[in-house]
Design the sequence.
């Protein structure tokens, strides 16, 4: 397969790091009327995030990534985050360290490129646009809300 990459894509994603033969996660677009078997994603990458920890055990793997502070406000424990195009449940969240961990089961490792990810690699981050809209609306409507309530 071949893809065209524009400047915005190269500036916002890790796709400029790829070389011919590199593997990527690709999923067909959802069509109106299709069954939704997971979280809705738009495919609009927000930023790239580095992998800072990799914990692997038989039948289980947990990756921890460092999230730019701005994007942390849109993430919550047991919510979801998209990394490299795959929607994953947030297993651990540390706001002080600006990190999020996701657990990868064998099926996810088999069907995605996460088996090849190593500490230091940059992953594409996508946050839920509905959560982003709600958080931004509340913050704009209640600008004097104490920060402890605005970003738990």
Sequence:
């Amino acid at each position: 397969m071949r893809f065209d990459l524009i400047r915005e894509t190269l500036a916002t994603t890790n796709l400029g790091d790829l070389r011919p033969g590199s593997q990527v996660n690709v999923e067909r677009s959802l069509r109106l009327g299709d069954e939704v078997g997971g979280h809705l994603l738009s495919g609009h990458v927000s930023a790239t995030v580095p992998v800072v920890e990799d914990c692997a055990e038989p039948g289980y793997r947990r990756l921890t990534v460092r999230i730019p502070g701005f994007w942390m406000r849109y993430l919550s424990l047991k919510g979801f985050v998209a990394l490299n195009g795959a929607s994953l449940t947030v297993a651990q969240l540390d706001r002080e360290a600006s990190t999020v961990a996701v657990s990868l089961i064998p099926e996810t490792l088999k069907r995605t490129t996460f088996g090849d990810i190593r500490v230091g690699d940059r992953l594409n981050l996508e946050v839920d646009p509905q959560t982003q809209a709600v958080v931004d609306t509340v913050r704009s409507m209640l600008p004097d809300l104490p920060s402890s309530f605005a970003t738990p």
User: Anything to note?
Assistant: Residues 50 and 122 are 4 Å apart (CA to CA). Strands lie at 47-57, 60-66, 80-83, 86-94, 99-104, 122-126.
